[in-house]
């Protein structure tokens, strides 16, 4: 069971956000969990390498953040 964080998305939040994410590549990690890791990093001001272990690897999270930042987050 994954740990719950205050930055985690509700099902209704994910439903809205998922419409804006481009799925051009299959990931072995859930896209929702990647978005939650990005949210965790932004909310807590931690560097990518300091993401908790129950999120996908920081390199994966950063890859998607860099790819999506102009489309979704800003």
TrEMBL record:
InterPro entries: IS402-like_dom. Residues 9-69 form the Insertion element IS402-like domain. This is Transposase. It comes from Rhodocytophaga rosea.
């Amino acid at each position: 069971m994954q740990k719950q964080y205050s930055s985690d998305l509700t099902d209704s939040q994910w439903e809205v956000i998922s419409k804006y994410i481009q799925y051009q590549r299959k990931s072995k990690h859930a896209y929702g969990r990647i978005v939650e890791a990005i949210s965790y990093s932004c909310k807590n001001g931690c560097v990518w390498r300091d993401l908790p272990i129950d999120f996908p690897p920081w390199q994966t999270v950063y890859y998607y953040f860099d790819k999506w930042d102009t489309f979704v987050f800003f």
